[in-house]
Design a protein that fits this description.
The chain is of the alpha+beta class and about 300 residues long. It folds into two domains: about 5-165 and about 305-310, Ribosomal Protein S5, domain 2 (2-Layer Sandwich); about 170-300, Alpha-Beta Plaits (2-Layer Sandwich). It has ten helices and eleven strands. Strands 1, 2, 3, 4, 5, 6 and 11 form a seven-stranded mixed β-sheet that branches. About 45% of the residues are buried.
Length: about 300
């Protein structure tokens, strides 16, 4: 019986200065989806693991199957008997693009099962539609890096116009995930609808300079650019000890520090693996001392994105 297994990695969205338009791909964690021949017409979810019983088996409502179903519809294959297994290898509500990884894994696995009738680039639209089932927002800052790997700039979410940016070789991240839950909907709801003109000017300079720093391998410019004047000040209050851990990271040599996606995960972008290790260890100790559970790990930037693993 034909079977395809796919891994789609976690991501860091926004990267401090690029709310809804910047994202990068992590080595770990990620989600796996298996597609295999079914016994009755249509797409069915047969197994979901690692979700603590939270994810729906209804095909239209699940991010992974929704993305795959849209692909089948466009190919005229909705009656083909096919089954899907979803294996969550990462927590939901962590700020690491869990729903995006599932959507990417679902459509990528279905495309592979069908012997790749569509290019990887063509799958982006389906994955974005799948993720939208989870948070109601149509944006690709998690989906695009999970699918393509690397660092991705989204010029237009509406048109899904994206640019894959250079990845300086030395970049590595210390990821800090405190064990608290922040819903994406809650994290979006607290944001102001308007931005002060002086903030817009400074933030535009920061995202432009950060992009230039990637092309030029300019870590000094990168460090000067990674300052979020708009989103981070509003969301930081949702994360206990955020300012203290940020101070630890910056004083330890991080190029920049901010919230990953909607949080509560945080990232320290570094140009030295030892610095990243030190930040991860110190952050873990800080949360332990405050009685807050936390997972900390190191990840290079994954330049491959979603892959077939069997």
């Amino acid at each position: 019986m034909k079977s395809v297994r796919v891994f789609a990695p976690a991501t860091v969205a926004n990267l401090a200065v690029g709310y809804d338009v910047l994202g990068l791909c992590l080595d770990q964690p990620g989600d796996e989806v298996v597609i295999k021949e079914g016994t009755s017409p249509g797409l069915k979810i047969t197994t979901i693991t690692g979700d603590k019983g939270l994810l729906p088996y209804e095909v239209e409502s699940n991010t992974a199957s929704h993305a795959a179903l849209r692909l089948l519809e466009d190919l005229g294959l909705t009656t083909m008997p096919v089954e899907m297994e979803i294996h969550k290898k990462m927590g939901m509500g962590t700020g690491l693009g869990s729903s995006a990884a599932s959507a990417v894994a679902g459509v990528y696995a279905m495309n592979a099962f069908l012997d790749e009738p569509m290019s990887k680039a063509a799958l982006l639209r389906y994955a974005v539609e799948g993720e939208a089932q989870a948070d109601g927002a149509y944006h690709a800052d998690n989906v695009a890096p999970s699918l393509f790997g690397g660092i991705v700039l989204i010029r237009s979410n509406t048109q899904l116009d994206y640019i894959e940016l250079p990845v300086p070789e030395k970049l590595v991240l210390a990821m800090i995930y405190p064990h608290i839950e922040i819903l994406t909907s809650e994290s979006r709801a607290i944001l102001k609808a308007t931005v002060e003109l002086n903030q817009m000017v400074k933030q535009t300079g920061n995202i432009a300079a950060f992009t230039a720093s990637l092309f030029n391998n300019d870590y000094n410019l990168m460090s000067r650019s990674l300052e979020d004047l708009v989103i981070e000040p509003q969301r930081a209050k949702l994360i206990p000890e955020f300012e203290q851990v940020k101070e630890i990271a910056l004083h330890s040599g991080a190029l920049g520090f901010s919230i990953s996606g909607a949080g509560p995960s945080m990232f320290a972008l570094c140009h030295d693996h030892d610095i990243a290790e030190k930040i991860a260890q110190m952050s873990k100790s800080h949360f332990d001392n405050k009685g807050i559970g936390a997972d900390c790990f190191i990840s290079k930037i994954n330049t491959t994105g979603a892959i077939q693993i069997d």
